[in-house]
Amino acid sequence: MNIENFQDTINACRFCFMCRHLSAVGNVTFRESDTPRGRALLTGKMQQNIKNLPPDYIDTFYRAELSAANRFHCVSHYDEAGLILAARRDIVEAGLAPENVKTLAAELQKANFKVEGSGSMLYYVDLYSDKANAPKDCKIISGGDTGKALEVLGFVKEAETVWTKFQTAVKASGCQTVVTSCPASYDMMKKRLDSVKVLHIAEFIEGKRGSGSVYYLDSDYLKNYNDNMTAPRDLLKKLGYELKPFGTNGEESYSAGEGAVIYDKLNPELTAKLCERIAELADNPAIDILVTASPYTRSVLNKYVPQLKVLLLDEVAAKGVK
Ligand code: SF4
């Protein structure tokens, strides 16, 4: 079983409750099962007899928002996010994926990439981004998720097939640099694209100077999966913005499920709750300006808590805070 590669994490997390306050889903469901400790206890049951795993156990692994905040801030960095992904792979391999997960996976496999436009660099438009935000003089690649979403759902072979299609299209473009606004896609490409330079838009755009204060909501993939990449904060400061701390602490994820890539498509009610918690934590929702580097986070916050003013980092850099 894939989860056996995470035996040290299972052994550590099932007796530990230290990071429960960083469990974004646990903070809105108030269930112990939605914490690393609860999920580690459930993997013990998986190891005993996966075929008889109750559906609500399976559901718990698909409720996880995969922010990886717990792993990032764990003093021993136990890989609780890796354990969830391994559990999902085992569930899929045992033929136990829930119907809604299978339907979503089938949809994601329809990805068909095309490259258009002209330029020496390539800009990838993910499922939540807008082509209008593409930098000038870039070719654009679009047509679906890179395979990252399938990977986090546990469909590893299917993810590989989509990734191969994406990689082939990137190479055929002839571009040596690919840029994206999507932190999850950045994570996938950075780790897997050979001989092509991968940049997040925050590392690329110059931007227009502005002023005033904004709250920056950290991206799970840029912070917790990529060594706390400072580029988004550096860019905002360079452009002249003062960054104010958001929420009750600097460790919790306020991305509303970005770590799970397509969380809103799988768990819309929980996504709404995650967004409502962010709205509740805003100091003054009527006037605060929140900035995110994640098109996913901007999309779900705009949808579920439209009373908040949430701007995408790309747009702040291009147009300023309006
Ligand atoms: S990730 Fe670390 S802090 Fe969290 S439950 Fe596991 S061992 Fe404890």
Describe this structure in words.
There is one protein chain. The chain has 322 residues and is of the alpha/beta class. The chain folds into 3 domains: 96 residues, no CATH class; 96 residues; 107 residues, Rossmann fold. Helix 1 crosses helix 3 and helix 3 runs parallel beside helix 6. The radius of gyration is 19 Å and the shape is globular. The termini are far apart. The model has no long low-confidence stretch (mean pLDDT 95). The structure holds iron/sulfur cluster.
Overall average residue pLDDT: 95
Poorly predicted segments? none
CATH topology of the largest domain: Rossmann fold
Q: Report the count of strand segments.
A: 9
Would you tell me the structural class of the helices and strands? alpha/beta
Report how far the terminal alpha carbons are from each other. Answer: 51 Å
Q: Which CATH first-tier class of the largest domain would you pick?
A: Alpha Beta
The overall number of domains is 3
Quick gist of this model?
The protein has 322 residues and is α/β, with parallel strands linked by helices. The chain is 44% helix and 11% strand. The protein has 3 domains: 2-97, no CATH class; 108-203; 213-319, 3-Layer(aba) Sandwich (Rossmann fold), CATH 3.40.50.
List keywords for this structure.
322 residues, alpha/beta, Rossmann fold, 5-stranded mixed sheet
List the helices and strands and how they pair.
Blueprint: H1 7-13, H2 26-29, H3 36-48, H4 55-63, H5 69-73, H6 80-93, H7 99-108, E1 114-116, E2 121-124, E3 138-142, H8 148-153, H9 156-173, E4 177-180, H10 183-192, E5 197-200, E6 213-217, H11 220-223, H12 231-238, E7 242-244, H13 263-266, H14 268-281, E8 289-292, H15 295-304, E9 309-312, H16 313-319
Parallel strand pairs: 2-3, 2-4, 4-5, 6-7, 6-8, 8-9
Antiparallel strand pairs: 1-3
